């Protein structure tokens, strides 16, 4: 073998090992779904033993078996290792008469006394052979074409089960990471929030506030906003921990919801001199805290980007009924979002190209998660005001 050929084979084995590791079955306890498939294979082929073999660069690992205890052997001793790449699907009436297997320890009696042998390769969606679904028996026998074809189909089912488990595991890890991220954000926000709340409480109780009614009113407004923020942090953390799939659903007065949002954004609205128009006289259905967080994010973004455009900010919040629910939009007269970037800005940590505004860009990704959990959709269009129109459609029944 040439050096170049050795490098190619090594690269293939590394790729195979990586594919095997992604399934997390080697070294793990046998799974019931895989054991059911090997039982079905043994019954279908009328044999005493069946196994699912995973074959890496050094060993054959039996990850599920019937008629024997799962075990491992070296790749050199494996019967399946000789054929799982080429020719792939194999049926042998009597392994003693096949030159590929006649001297194998599973045939000679050193390990077992295999006579009938059949196997079908396990091939990943990327086309990587990682092992076999194998059936064998101590008696020589033939396998009719229909049963042989069924064994191939069962091998495909094994890969489907492995893929489903891999995807489910990845989703679980993703949800765990989301929960950890939410927990860290919650922790980071709670500490300064508790400090602010404490100072507000002290200031509100101060004797000086008796003769300063406007200051007392402002402090009461700030204290109320801090309480709403604390509830929002708690609810968003709970939403993340359950995987972003279980929002509460209650009737919500949309105009009241928007009014609460504008109250929380009172300071930036005053600072920018923005005009905010609200036309949303509807009762919608959903989680008030979560949808409030979405609306607050959209209005805050509209304020932020309109302010940097140099124009006097104008924000319009509109809602109207659609066939299956409501469409809520937040329009602004800012620079807008280029059409090519309108999908990308919903990705976690993404920001529009040329965005000079501070922020990590986590807002719109969270908004999409919340809206989709309600069974709705969210997107960006051009606004009649000249900027962006960010909209969400919420179903009346999710």
Please describe what this structure looks like.
This protein has helices spanning 3-23, 32-45, 105-108, 145-204, 213-241, 254-264, 266-272, 288-308, 363-373, and strands spanning 49-55, 59-66, 72-74, 90-92, 116-123, 129-137, 250-253, 275-279, 283-286, 314-322, 325-332, 377-382, 388-395. The relative contact order is 0.07. The strands form three sheets. It has a six-stranded antiparallel beta sheet. The chain has a five-stranded mixed beta sheet with strand order 8-10-11-13-12. A two-stranded antiparallel sheet has the order 7-9. By secondary structure, the protein is an alpha+beta fold. It has two domains: 3-170, 2-Layer Sandwich (Beta-Lactamase); 247-395, 2-Layer Sandwich (Heat Shock Protein 90). The chain is elongated.
Can you give me a brief rundown of this structure?
The chain is of the alpha+beta class and 398 residues long. It has two domains: 3-170, GAF domain (Beta-Lactamase, 2-Layer Sandwich); 247-395, Heat Shock Protein 90, CATH 3.30.565.10. The chain has helices spanning 3-23, 32-45, 105-108, 145-204, 213-241, 254-264, 266-272, 288-308, 363-373; strands at residues 49-55, 59-66, 72-74, 90-92, 116-123, 129-137, 250-253, 275-279, 283-286, 314-322, 325-332, 377-382, 388-395.
Pick out its properties.
398 residues, 13 strands, 9 helices, 2 domains, alpha+beta, Beta-Lactamase
Topology:
Elements: H1 3-23, H2 32-45, E1 49-55, E2 59-66, E3 72-74, E4 90-92, H3 105-108, E5 116-123, E6 129-137, H4 145-204, H5 213-241, E7 250-253, H6 254-264, H7 266-272, E8 275-279, E9 283-286, H8 288-308, E10 314-322, E11 325-332, H9 363-373, E12 377-382, E13 388-395
Parallel strand pairs: 8-10
Antiparallel strand pairs: 1-2, 1-6, 2-3, 4-5, 5-6, 7-9, 10-11, 11-13, 12-13
């Amino acid at each position: 073998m040439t050096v170049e050929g050795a490098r190619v084979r090594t690269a293939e084995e590394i790729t195979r090992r990586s594919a095997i590791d992604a399934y997390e079955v080697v070294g793990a306890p046998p799974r019931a779904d895989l054991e059911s498939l090997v039982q079905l294979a043994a019954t279908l082929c009328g044999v005493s033993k069946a196994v699912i073999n995973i074959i890496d660069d050094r060993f054959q690992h039996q990850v599920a078996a019937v008629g024997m205890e799962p075990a491992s052997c070296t790749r050199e001793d494996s019967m399946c290792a000789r054929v799982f790449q080429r020719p792939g699907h194999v049926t042998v009436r009597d392994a003693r008469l096949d030159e590929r297997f006649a001297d194998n320890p599973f045939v000679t009696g050193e390990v077992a006394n295999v006579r009938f042998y059949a196997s079908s390769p396990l091939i990943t969606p990327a086309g990587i052979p990682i092992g076999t679904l194998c059936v064998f028996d101590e008696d020589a026998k033939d396998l009719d074409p229909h049963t042989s074809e069924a064994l191939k189909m069962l091998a495909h089912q094994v890969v489907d089960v492995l893929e489903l488990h891999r995807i489910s595991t990845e989703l679980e890890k993703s949800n765990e990471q989301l929960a950890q991220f939410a927990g860290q954000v919650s922790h980071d926000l709670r500490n300064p929030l508790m400090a602010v709340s404490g100072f507000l409480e002290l200031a509100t109780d101060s004797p000086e506030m008796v003769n300063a009614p406007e200051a007392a009113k402002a402090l009461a407004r700030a204290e109320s906003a801090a309480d709403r923020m604390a509830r929002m942090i708690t609810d968003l953390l709970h939403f993340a921990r359950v995987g972003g799939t279980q929002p509460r659903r209650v009737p919500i007065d949309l105009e009241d919801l928007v009014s609460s949002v504008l109250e929380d954004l009172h300071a930036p609205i005053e600072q920018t001199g923005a005009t905010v128009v609200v036309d949303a006289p509807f009762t919608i259905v959903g989680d008030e805290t979560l949808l409030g967080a979405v609306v607050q994010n959209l209005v805050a973004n509209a304020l932020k980007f309109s302010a940097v455009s140099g124009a006097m900010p104008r924000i319009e919040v509109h809602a109207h009924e659609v066939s299956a629910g409501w469409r809520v939009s937040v329009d602004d007269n800012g620079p807008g979002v280029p059409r090519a970037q309108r999908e990308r800005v919903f990705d976690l940590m993404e920001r529009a190209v040329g965005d000079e505004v501070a922020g990590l860009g986590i807002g719109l990704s969270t908004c999409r998660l919340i809206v989709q959990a309600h069974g709705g959709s969210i997107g960006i269009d051009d606004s009649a005001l000249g900027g962006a129109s960010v909209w969400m459609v919420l179903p009346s029944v999710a």
